[in-house]
Write a structure and sequence with these properties.
This protein is mainly β and 176 residues long. 6% of the residues lie in helices and 42% in strands. A hairpin with a 2-residue loop joins strand 3 and strand 4.
C-alpha cells in the first residue's frame, strides 16, 4: 500500500500495489500492519456500502461527534466518485480547509479520513458503490452534518448534485 498526503494534514489517499500475472491482479484493500507502519492506528469494526444508482448523487457532509468520532477508509468498488474531507477540528492549522480525491473502482484507490473531519462525495458515474470501513460503529444520536455548499468552506465540486437528500441540502451554515 502506498500512502499519499493530500492538500491538508490528516486525510491520505491509499493506493494499491498490484501483483499482476496471467490471472489478473491482486492487491490489499486494508492491512493493519501497513497502516501501523504509516503511523495510523486504524482498526475497523464496521463495513458499510453506499449504492448510488444515479450520476451526480451527493451524500454529505457527515461526521459523528465524540464519544463516537470515527475514522474511515473509503473506497469506490464500482464506478467513480469525487470524495471530500473537510477539517472541522477547531484549533487545527487545517480548520475549514478540505482535501479531495477522485476514487474509482478501476484505480482501486481509497481515502483515509481521521476523526474530526466531515466527509461526503459526489458520484461521477451511474451505479457507483462506495465501501466504508469505520473504526467506530454508527451512532445515529451523534450523527452531524454540514451543507455541501456552505460558503465557510468553498469546496469546488465538479458538478451540481442531481440527487441529494432534503437533510443534506438543508444543513444550517456551519457554526465555527
Amino acid at each position: 500500500m502506498i500512502f499519499r498526503a493530500l492538500a491538508i494534514d490528516g486525510p491520505l489517499e491509499v493506493l494499491p500495489e498490484r501483483a499482476r500475472d496471467d490471472r489478473g491482479a491482486f492487491f490489499r484493500g486494508f492491512c493493519t500492519a501497513e497502516f501501523a507502519a504509516a503511523g495510523l492506528d486504524f482498526r475497523p469494526v464496521q463495513v458499510s456500502y453506499s449504492e448510488n444508482p444515479r450520476r451526480h448523487t451527493l451524500r454529505g457532509m457527515h461526521w459523528q461527534d465524540a464519544p463516537a468520532a470515527e475514522a474511515k477508509l473509503i473506497r469506490c468498488v464500482r464506478g467513480a466518485a469525487h470524495d471530500v474531507a473537510i477539517d472541522i477540528r477547531r484549533g487545527s492549522p487545517g480548520f475549514r480547509r478540505h482535501a479531495a480525491v477522485t476514487l474509482s473502482a478501476e484505480a482501486g484507490n481509497a481515502i483515509f479520513i481521521p476523526a474530526g473531519f466531515a466527509h461526503g462525495f459526489l458520484s461521477l458515474s451511474e451505479d457507483a458503490v462506495l465501501e466504508y470501513m469505520m473504526d467506530t460503529p454508527y451512532e445515529p444520536t451523534l450523527a452531524r452534518g454540514l451543507r455541501w455548499n456552505d460558503p465557510a468552506f468553498a469546496v469546488p465540486w465538479p458538478a451540481e448534485p442531481a440527487v441529494i437528500s432534503a437533510r443534506d441540502a438543508s444543513w444550517p451554515d456551519f457554526d465555527g
